[in-house]
Amino acid sequence: MSDTLLRVDGVTQRFGHGEHATLALDDVSLEVRRGETLGLVGESGSGKSTLARAILLMRRPSSGRIEFDGGDVSRLRGSALRTHRRRVQMVFQDPNDSLDPRFTVARSIAEPLVAAGMGSAARRARVVESLHQVGLPGDAAGRFPHEFSGGQRQRIAIARAMAAKPEFVVLDEPTSALDVSVQAQVLNLLVRLQEETGVTYLFITHNLAVVHHVAHRVAVMRNGRVVEEGTGEQVMTRPQDAYTRELLESMPVLYRT
Amino acid sequence: MDRDVDALHVEGLSIAYGGAAPSVQDVSLRVGPGEIVGVIGESGSGKSSIALAMMGLLPDSATVTASRLDVAGTDMQGATERDWSGLRGARASMVFQEPMSALNPCMRIGAQIAEVLRIHGIADKRQARARALEILHLVRMPDAERRLGYYPHQLSGGQRQRVVIAIAVAAGPTLLVADEPTTALDVTVQAQILELLRTLRDETGMGVLFISHDLGVIGQLCERVAVMYRGRIVETGRAERVLADPQHPYTRALLESIPRPSVPVRSPLAVIPVDNDFVEAPAVLEEVR
């Protein structure tokens, strides 16, 4: 078993044609090791969410390869693609993006399990187990998203992402819409889940302090390129790239000390 | 503008919506001339209700009581909507989080600034364009002359917030209330807008009431800070002191819940319990003047 779970190799994403074309991703390469958290930091328009979509195979890149667990997945189709998708999940900034307001919590969490072909009794058990894993009571299963606070809804979205026991989870600004005290709970939860399950995270955020806290390694993106990569400690204290330094200097002093 | 008058002085402010329990209770705040005072709190702490009350913008269902309510040097106790509309945009103005909700999407920004200038009798139709340009320069809008002819959607988020601030300061207010004005912006743009607010304060001497959920931003900009928790002020003091040495248990917990390089990597962050007794702890009010 290779140490590298995900390898992004020279991925370019072009939108539009000819002189109106924009390069959303410009020859991006990075690796995420099994069981680690790679923090991906960037401002609006840096390409971090486009990269997430490419990794999740929601959009085929214009060129480059995406390897998962040693195999090229960027050309997968049909049942091979569906099999791959079960191994990779996503948590969005707004939990409402993955929770249908008309579905019970149980139905939302069970959706990836249905896709994985799990039987109904096993599904019910797994839903309750997932809720407990994220610190919610089992009876939350029969309720609807609107009955929960924003922080609880994000827990439910995390339970849904973790239900099918994925190997890799993309977290796209999972705490950006939350109060800091709720953010603390969700970050604690994500760290604990990783320690318990060994899941690998790509943690996308605009917040360097958050990424420094949760990530083993950090990559900084700007204008579709990865401009810096290193441990959180290296990036925060010895930034090599001019843009990373600008980003750090823009942060309120409180988050730099 | 009168530089000797407090930008804001309220005492014993309480706000209740309908018959519900008050969402703001017994709040006292003072913003001296040229001072930037921060109000920090999480969702539901009552901070935005205070901001709206200072501008007379609360819905009719809200009941406001105060033993003192001086806004921009004017006693606004029992003020009518007519009194408030004479104050708003002139001696007291407000900047919100989302610039697009404050701007007219179908109107060029030069015309939007000029409209404010005419309404407040600062410039007539002929002078308005020149004065609008001056104000865009004041808020450091790059390439200001050309941007007068732009529509809001042609500007970046930071530039839009500059326009909103330009409109807010056009009439030279004594008080500027800013409610999360940088929350929707990238961190590099946020730093620029904070710098702009500080510069404008230095140049005009206006007082600023700055509302935010972000302790870091408050520490960066404000001289003094009031910490709100469940409708009450639990701690006030110099921003530097409150951030470095918080005294109230809620302020302490809030600070410890923030990921920072000084907190060991991947260690559990402090969690603020939902049913705690912070409300029981006495408020820590530091008299600084």
Word description of this protein:
The complex is a heterodimer of chains A (257) and B (289). Chain A is of the alpha/beta class and 257 residues long. Chain A has a domain of 68 residues. Chain B folds into two domains: 196 residues, Rossmann fold (3-Layer(aba) Sandwich); 72 residues, no CATH class. Chain B has a seven-stranded mixed β-sheet with strand order 7-8-9-3-10-11-12, sandwiched between helices. In chain B, strands 1, 2, 4, 5 and 6 form a five-stranded antiparallel β-sheet that branches. With 289 residues, chain B is α/β, with parallel strands linked by helices. Helices cover 35% and strands 22% of the residues of chain B. The longest helix of chain B is centred in the C-terminal third of the chain and has 18 residues. The mean pLDDT of chain B is 93. In chain B, helix 7 packs parallel to helix 8. The chains are: A alpha/beta (257), B alpha/beta (289). Chains A and B meet through helix 6, helix 7, helix 8 and helix 9 of A and helix 8 and helix 9 of B.
Task: Describe the structure concisely for a colleague.
The complex is a heterodimer of chains A (about 260) and B (about 290). Chain A has about 260 residues and is an alpha/beta fold. Chain A has helices at about 50-55, 80-85, 105-115, 120-135, 150-165, 180-195, 210-215, 230-235, 240-250; strands at about 5-15, 20-35, 35-40, 65-70, 70, 90, 170, 200-205, 215-220, 225-230.
Ends apart, CA distance between termini of chain B: 22 Å
Average predicted confidence as pLDDT of chain B: 93
The SSE string of chain B, one letter per element, is: EEEHEEEHEHHHHHEHEHEEHHE
Strand content of chain A: 15-25%
Largest pleated sheet of chain A: 6 strands, mixed
Number of helices of chain B: 11
Outline of chain A, from the CA principal axes? globular
Which fold name is given in CATH as the topology of the largest domain in chain B?
Rossmann fold
Structural class of chain B: alpha/beta
Helix content of chain B: 25-40%
Assigned CATH class of the largest domain in chain B:
Alpha Beta
Structural class of chain A: alpha/beta
Ends of chain A: how far apart?
39 Å
Please report the total strand number of chain A as a whole number: 10
Q: Please estimate the helix content of chain A.
A: 25-40%
Q: Based on the coordinates given, report the CATH architecture of the largest domain in chain B.
A: 3-Layer(aba) Sandwich
For the secondary structure, the number of strands of chain B is 12
